[in-house]
């Protein structure tokens, strides 16, 4: 399972439901990305996070604005 | 040390926790219970006289150690965050459901894994129910289930449960106020310092690895992510080796000695309720203790719900009985789930459905 680490955009949320809403919204908008467990380095909690390409940042911000999905934080990190 | 950046390290965390469980069983804990969260909360509730089932009363240092271990490591690593406010009373009810389901099956998800590793086929049957329960919870998540977000709260709030449990530990060591079984599972325990140390270390590794039985299956279902399942695999592997090495691996139904029963439907439904409620509450019984330790008052309320659920189970005779050998006649008496226990499980499952499909995420303003 050796995989090169790449810099990704990670969006964390206050609730799992927000993360699920994000997945739905991004699918509808055709924006690439996927749900992942919140990286351990970011949180000791066990929620879900949205993982996308860093260049999608603006697109993702727009989707969250439109769908009124509140983020907890936005990170750019290697995963 | 970062314990979660590779599957190998996650498996290692599972292996260490498995070794702790095996050691505690070796040094006196009921063999196939070893480190059951539900059983041990039930025993602790008994020690506090919340119920009067004489065979299951003992303030288990493991439970106290788990919460303190998680508390200490999260304070040291600055991960302690005192949070609260995510529908606490619903979580209280979910805690009760988790405990009632567990005591009808006779074990939490951790003990289910331990029983599976000892060849107890009843636990393998119950696994079906657990997976279905987690699956139902995942459907609810997909449909927008939410208990609302938690907020940062007064720093002391998250420390209350660790302090209260330290009090229970002091009471059990320094006074004779607490009850302690003289026979039955409650009387079987490893030396107190070993139990406490085992709990502390288990708590640290569980906090670091985010070990969770419900979460592991949830992550596979929702994201095809096998990280948490790797931890569980580690626990299972170690316990399997321990059981094989000590001749305790007996693949069978209706085995006296293992505290279990073979009412398949109720094993399935009991664990169905546990899996369902655990996904809604955001973690299995073990995970609730760990989250409570790192400052979540919501998880602490779930733990209190589990204590009350345990008391209800024994005060109202809801808990199942294990298959046992009658000492006089030497006959095997099959364990069973009492009628009220069956009704309670059905009510619990109904409650889960109500909670799951009536608590929806609100579009934020």
UniProtKB/TrEMBL annotation, chain A:
Domain Putative Se/S carrier protein-like: 9-76
Listed name of the protein: DUF3343 domain-containing protein
Species, as recorded: Mediterraneibacter hominis
TrEMBL record, chain B:
PROSITE patterns per record: PROKAR_LIPOPROTEIN (PS51257)
Keywords: Membrane, Transmembrane, Transmembrane helix
Membrane spanning residue stretches: 89-112, 124-141, 161-182, 188-206, 226-245, 265-286, 298-319, 339-358
Pfam families xrefs: Sulf_transp (PF04143)
Protein name as catalogued: YedE-related selenium metabolism membrane protein
Organism: Mediterraneibacter hominis
Lineage, uppermost ranks: Bacteria, Bacillati, Bacillota, Clostridia, Lachnospirales
């Amino acid at each position: 399972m050796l995989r090169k680490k790449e810099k990704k955009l990670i969006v964390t949320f206050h609730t799992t439901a927000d993360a699920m809403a994000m997945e739905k919204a991004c699918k509808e908008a055709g924006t690439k990305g996927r749900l992942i467990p919140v990286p351990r380095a970011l949180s000791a909690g066990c929620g879900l996070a949205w993982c996308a390409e860093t260049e999608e940042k603006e697109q993702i911000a727009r989707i969250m604005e439109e769908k009124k999905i509140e983020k907890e934080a936005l990170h750019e990190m290697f995963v | 040390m970062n314990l979660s950046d590779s599957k190998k390290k996650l498996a290692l965390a599972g292996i260490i926790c498995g070794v702790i469980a095996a050691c505690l069983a070796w040094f006196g804990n009921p063999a196939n219970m070893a480190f059951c969260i539900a059983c041990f909360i039930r025993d602790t509730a008994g020690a506090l006289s919340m119920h009067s089932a004489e065979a299951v009363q003992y303030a288990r240092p493991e439970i106290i150690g788990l919460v303190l271990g998680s508390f200490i490591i999260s304070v040291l690593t600055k991960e302690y965050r005192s949070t609260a406010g995510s529908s606490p009373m619903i979580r209280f009810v979910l805690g009760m459901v988790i405990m009632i389901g567990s005591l009808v099956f006779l074990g939490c998800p951790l003990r289910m894994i331990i029983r599976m590793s000892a060849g107890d086929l009843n636990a393998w049957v119950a696994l079906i129910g657990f997976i279905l329960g987690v699956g139902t919870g995942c459907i609810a998540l997909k449909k927008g289930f939410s208990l609302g977000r938690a907020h940062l709260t007064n720093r002391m709030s998250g420390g209350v449960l660790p302090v209260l449990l330290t009090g229970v530990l002091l009471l059990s060591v320094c006074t004779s106020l607490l009850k302690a079984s003289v026979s039955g599972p409650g009387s079987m325990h490893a030396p107190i310092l070993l139990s406490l140390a085992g709990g502390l270390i288990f708590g640290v590794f569980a906090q670091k690895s985010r070990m969770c039985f419900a979460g592991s299956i949830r992550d596979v279902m929702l994201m095809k992510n096998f990280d948490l399942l790797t931890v569980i695999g580690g626990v299972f592997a170690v316990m399997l080796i321990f059981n094989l090495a000590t001749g305790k691996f007996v693949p069978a139904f209706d085995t006296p000695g293992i505290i279990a029963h073979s009412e398949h439907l109720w094993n399935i439904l009991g664990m169905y309720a546990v899996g369902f409620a655990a996904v809604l509450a955001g973690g299995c019984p073990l995970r609730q203790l760990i989250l409570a330790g790192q400052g979540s008052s919501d998880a602490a309320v779930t733990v209190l719900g589990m204590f009350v659920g345990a008391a209800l189970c024994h005060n109202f005779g809801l808990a199942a009985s294990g298959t046992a050998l009658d000492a006089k006649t030497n006959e095997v008496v099959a364990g069973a789930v009492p009628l009220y226990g069956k009704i309670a499980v059905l009510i619990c499952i109904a409650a889960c459905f109500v909670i799951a499909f009536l608590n929806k995420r609100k579009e934020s303003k």
